[in-house]
Amino acid sequence: MADISHFFTPVDFDALVDSELNPLQLGNVISIYKQDTDFPEIENQHIAIIGVNESRNSVNNAGCETAANATRKYLYKLYSGEFNAKIVDLGDINPGHSKDDTYFALRTTVDALIRKNVIPIIIGGSQDLTYPQFLGYKDLEQTINIVSIDSMFDIGNPEEEISNHSYLGKIILHQPNYLFNFSNVGYQTYLVDPLSLKMMERLFFDVYRLGQIRDKIEESEPIIRQADMITFDITAIKNSDAPANPNASPNGFYSEEACQMMRYAGMSDKLSSIGFYELNPDYDLGGKTAHLLAQMIWCFLDGYYNRKNDFPSRSNPDYLRFHVVLEDKYDINFYKSKKSDRWWMEIPYPPHKDLKFERHTLIPCSSKDYDMAMNSEIPDRWWQTYQKLS
Questions:
Q1: Do 153 and 192 form a contact (C-beta atoms < 8 A)?
Q2: Are 222 and 365 a contacting pair, CB within 8 Å?
Q3: pTM of the shown model
Q4: What is the rounded distance in angstroms from the CA atom of residue 157 to the CA atom of residue 372?
Q5: How far apart are CA 80 and CA 82, in angstroms?
Q6: Residue 311 neighbours by CB under 8 Å, 6+ apart
Q7: Which residues pair with residue 183 across a beta bridge?
Q8: Strand 8-9 to strand 87-93: parallel, antiparallel, or no bridges (unpaired)?
Q9: How many Å apart are CA 173 and CA 152, to the nearest integer?
Q10: Contact assessment for residue 52 and residue 124, using Cβ atoms and an 8 Å cutoff
Q11: Minimal CA–CA distance to 58: which of 146, 161, 135?
């Protein structure tokens, strides 16, 4: 494994914590890379917090590179909850000589941590850092799913220099292509180019309007459960709840909904990295957004320590199996966990396809998808995955 310690600078703990902490507050529970201490051991840890102080590719959001320490001030004061936390804070990746140097450091770090079964929680920085987060999976020899919680798609013009508004185009066109599926949660139609929406449809990607998700926030759970990595743009949250961005919209998710989705993310047995981007302390009001992000991370941790090790197989007695035939043409097997009441559905795997897509043939769903199938309707997410595999 690559030695990642030289990428990091320690946390100035005394500058962030102005009073003595209780032994159960996260500042005492997390193993923190502080000044005048050795770089922490990663072996046998569950989660690693990483600050990335980079915003040179941001559009209209200079200053977001200071978000990590603004968030730590609140995160360290939260109580650990009823979980035996094995968490490290590795400190910060500072801007390299060039932006590519920062990208290389983050990519190498993500790769190294995932190989150790340690989940990186990345606090950016601008959202173009999603690209090196994605590159961290390049050498892991599997195709992956990305979920973006964002009010826009950020496709941009792939021929132009990467920015926080164009990183997705770089990911889609990356060769070799190891992106299987992209899902956007919470886009706002008036902020999205109609041509981008048509591109998403052509690529069989899943996109969900803000109103769709807010109407029933639990429907975001199977979408999030499908992700290998999540990128969260803080502007997906409404301005009144998260003002720390000059591009924040009056509409968006409420803070409680953002926390609920992060608990879903933590509970997902598949998720192996998550990044939070675009929080700019220069625009925050009394630390409101940084405090919210700290609570979102806490909810992720709480979800992680309530994972169920849930993944169905055809013969496992812990899962109920339901077989539905549609139009005398499509057979859909549904699986329901007795432990968590979560649902999956099976996509027929074409024999001519190579094995690299086989991990995508059991996809998360909800009871609503089963109800649709029972009413002779093909669930949208089943059909889109079927199209991709055919």
A1: yes
A2: yes
A3: 0.95
A4: 38
A5: 7
A6: 269, 270, 344, 362
A7: 147, 206
A8: antiparallel
A9: 18
A10: yes
A11: 161
For 245, the token pair is 């961005």
Q: Which residues touch 24 (CB under 8 Å, ≥6 apart)?
A: 79, 80
- CB 310: neighbour CB atoms within 10 A? 21
Secondary structure letter of residue 348 according to DSSP: P
Distance, C-alpha 280 to centroid of its chain: 19
The tokens for 37 are 């201490």
Element (H, E) at 321: strand 319-326
- Measured CA angle at 116 (ends 119, 174), to 5 deg: 70
> For the segment 236-269, what is each residue's pLDDT rounded down to a tens digit?
999 999 999 999 999 999 999 999 999 999 999 9
Tell me the three state secondary structure of residue 302.
helix
pLDDT digits (tens, 9 = 90+) for 86-116: 999 999 999 999 999 999 999 999 999 999 9
CA distance to 220, 274, 313, 335, 340, per residue, from 319 (Å): 22, 28, 8, 6, 10
Using an 8 Å Cβ cutoff, are 335 and 345 in contact?
A: yes
Average pLDDT over residues 362-389: 92
87-93 and 31-32: which strand pairing?
A: parallel
Strand pairing partners for 49?
Answer: 89, 121
As a whole number of angstroms, the distance between CA 274 and CA 300 comes to: 10
User: Model confidence over 42-88: pLDDT tens digits?
Assistant: 999 999 999 999 999 999 999 999 999 999 999 999 999 888 899 99
